[in-house]
Write a structure and sequence with these properties.
about 140 residues; alpha+beta; four-stranded antiparallel sheet; 7 helices; 4 strands; binds adenosine-3',5'-cyclic-monophosphate
Length: about 140
């Protein structure tokens, strides 16, 4: 089934000028980038986006990280896009990520893990709506 998922290229990756390298892995995996913009996430945006993790000990660090440099927010489209992108990203902790995945290739640590991808179709819809209007997505 054709799906859309939400992706963020995180500050550790944009700082290292890896936007194009990450996008090359995404496209080689058969996912189409149907919307994309580079933004500086505000503290309010980061706190809202990661609200589900607000009780975690790493929440403060996570918000600091996500707001320290620009990110690239994206909508990816393709067959089973939610699960496919999670495969392409690799495990949350780069130390556990499979060969060829974005996190294995580029990420340094569980905190600074280069990319985010939605964990379900419902969350994909919610996350896309936080950053994109319908007319910004051109499939
Ligand atoms: P993400 O998929 O964006 O969703 C939640 C994020 O929290 C996750 O990626 C990691 O970047 C971050 N995270 C998860 N576990 C830890 C941890 N133990 N320490 C710091 N950050 C973490």
């Amino acid at each position: 089934m054709t799906e859309r998922t939400f992706s963020i290229i995180k500050p550790d990756a944009t700082e290292k000028n890896l936007t194009g390298a990450v996008n090359a892995v995404i496209e080689a995996a058969g996912l189409r980038i149907v919307a994309q913009k580079r933004i500086k996430m505000s503290r309010a945006q980061a706190e809202k986006f990661y609200e589900v993790h607000s009780a975690r000990p790493f929440f403060g660090e996570l918000v600091e990280f996500m707001t320290r440099a620009p990110v690239v927010v994206q909508v990816l489209e393709g067959d089973n896009a939610v699960a496919r992108y999670r495969e392409v990203m690799g495990a949350t902790n780069p130390a556990d990520a499979a060969e060829g995945t974005i996190r294995k290739l580029y990420a340094d640590s569980v905190g600074e893990n280069s990319v985010h991808g939605s964990d379900s179709l419902d969350n994909a819809r919610i996350e896309i709506a936080q950053f994109f209007t319908d007319d910004e997505i051109v499939g």
